[in-house]
TrEMBL record, chains A, B:
GO-annotated molecular function: DNA-binding transcription factor activity; transcription cis-regulatory region binding
UniProt keyword tRNA-binding present: no
Classification via InterPro entries: HTH_LacI, LacI/GalR-like_sensor, Lambda_DNA-bd_dom_sf, Peripla_BP_I
CDD domains: HTH_LacI, PBP1_LacI_sugar_binding-like
Species per Swiss-Prot/TrEMBL record: Marilutibacter maris
HTH lacI-type domain sequence ranges: 4-58
Stated name of the protein: LacI family transcriptional regulator
Length: 341, 341
DNA sequence: CTGAAAGCGCTTACAG
DNA sequence: CTGAAAGCGCTTACAG
């Protein structure tokens, strides 16, 4: 039983393939009578159009390409959920590709998207990957929206989280709570988000506590590095009165180090993170953090892309930042109200 | 600047399109000299093959369709990660589609896959969806591997977690710990996993504690329903000495209800879940549970599918179950060793 | 309103 | 080893 094609339907309905095509695509220049016949024959034959053939002649795939550095973890899960939400609303498929931090592979993935998708959503947080991205973009000839990436040049919209503003706001909050010796656990050096958060910490410190030395510890966004940083701080001759980690996982690692050492959080040292992962609300004490609405990031980016595809214009949207939200829990001191950055 | 096609490359390299095609597909019946010229011209022109055209004539898409009920949460994140892992090893793309619990949409999604993918990975935990699945499968004419689904008939491989065996093993473990009044918080009624876990609880109870009445509370897999069940149990005239929830989220909800009521876990009531989500290890007391290796489920399913596509035979693999693993933490009583189900 | 035909960009026997 | 040509299954001007 071979696959049934549009020809089979045409033959069975005694019309041309052009007519079948028109009916199936909902064109209105078809007689009611003929339309019904075609539709019922198509159903009877269990006909399903062949997407590749359709794409080839219509030059539309009804799909979006999503190229991410990784798929593991809640961040990507949320991002994909946001993307999926608007994609399905527009009846667009999602072609997913993760390049696992390999810049070469990112280029390959982008190229392989030609003829498969109508536009590209690309996240490239590695500061080094921007060139490859630029190449690939010109290669693919497709509308592109960049997510949380260093602007790779002129073309394409870039959408990201306001990491800089969020980090600044967190430092402001800690300072307003009376903290003065605020240590920062940084993220990976080649990561754009990490970079921006560090910059926010520095700028806020310079502005609010001029003359105070920066206090920066290395980290790489995972819990273990936060734990290490915490132990370093415990061993330091002078301890900070607050620790701000560039993300929640490191903040939690640091928190566990403190708790193991019998240090009271927030009594002796206040603690804050960034992201607001679910765990942040479950641990004890609850972790204060800057909430990033990842799903919204994904859905916004997708909206922009869909618009770009529809307009057929090269995307010239300005860079846009999504606000973060301060979430105050016990780890940073006495409870206060939420505010927005 | 229009997109460059294989014709442009052929012209620029002074060869036929057939030869360009051969070079690009790595066929060996091409002179070294010609090969090099074509390759360098292709690179120079930044040529990228058009996937739809290639798919149409080669009848291969190099892509796998993944149809899931939802994308939200860690389960799907892990599943996709496992799938992606083997897909990338075989250089296969992933077309993702979630039908959000809508059986109609599931059918539509499956149909839309024709001409886009070489095979289908489908998860359909809704017991009612099996008919639609069967329809769609015959429609799509593609190799299918079902994940955690009720066997929809003869065709297609079914791969799933051994929910029944895992639940049995958990009850056995609780009984061996001296517990006799074991309440069970069930999952959604139309969910296949939930169904199997409940069956495991029942079978184990009937076997190990004959004559003991089943003690089943309703739940729907989320934390709130676990919390509700916990409050019900607190209010009961007689309390259980152990509670086994059909998943971790409900177990955690139940745990919070107990802790709020000042009930000692596991002192007064032991508690166990199913899944081993990361939270299970972070809460205090740590939650005993049955670990399900979701990523492995995804990668196994994908291996089977890839094999099915390669063999071109209708898949007739028997139903397969992935073992679960008992993880003992504080919530179930004194620490013991891990064992496998 | 309907059909014949060209064309989308490839791959693959078939000759040579 | 290489090329001309048919064909994959659709869509879309172009006529009528």
């Amino acid at each position: 039983m071979a696959n049934v094609t549009i020809k089979d339907v045409a033959r069975a309905a005694s019309v041309s393939v052009a007519t079948v095509s028109r009916v199936l695509n909902g064109h209105d220049n078809v007689t009611e009578h003929v339309r019904d016949r075609v539709l019922s024959v198509a159903r009877e034959l269990r006909y399903t159009p062949h997407a590749a053939a359709r794409s080839l002649s219509s030059r539309r795939t009804q799909a979006l390409g999503v190229v991410l550095p990784d798929l593991h973890g809640e961040f990507f899960s949320e991002l994909i959920r946001g993307i999926d939400q608007v994609a399905r609303r527009h009846r667009l498929h999602l072609l997913l590709s993760s390049y696992h931090g390999d810049v070469e592979e990112q280029g390959t993935a982008l190229q392989a998207m030609r003829g498969r998708v109508d536009g590209l959503l690309v996240m490239s947080p590695y500061t080094a990957a921007s060139q490859s991205l630029e190449d690939a973009r010109s290669l693919s000839q497709l509308p592109v929206v960049l997510i949380n990436s260093q602007s790779g040049g002129a073309a394409g919209t870039v959408l990201g989280v306001d990491n800089h503003g969020g980090a600044r706001a967190m430092v402001e909050y800690l300072v307003s709570g009376g903290h003065r010796r605020i240590a920062f656990i940084a993220g990976p050096e080649d990561n754009f988000d990490a970079h921006e958060r560090l910059r926010g910490y520095r700028d806020a410190l310079a502005e609010l506590l001029p003359g105070t030395a920066e206090w920066i510890l290395r980290g790489d966004f995972d819990e273990a590095s936060g734990h290490r940083a915490g132990r370093e701080l415990i061993a330091a001759s002078e301890r900070p009165d607050a620790v701000f980690a560039a993300n929640d996982m490191m903040a939690l690692g640091c928190m566990f180090a403190f708790l193991q050492a019998g240090i009271d959080v927030p009594g002796e040292i206040a603690l804050a993170g960034f992201d607001d992962i679910p765990l942040a609300g479950y641990v004890h004490p609850g972790l204060s953090t800057m909430r990033v609405n990842i799903a919204e990031l994904g859905s916004h980016a997708t909206e922009l892309l869909v618009a770009a595809i529809a307009s057929k214009e090269p995307v010239t949207e300005p860079r846009r930042w999504l606000a973060t939200e301060l979430i105050v829990r016990e780890s940073s001191g006495p409870p206060e109200r939420r505010t927005s950055s």
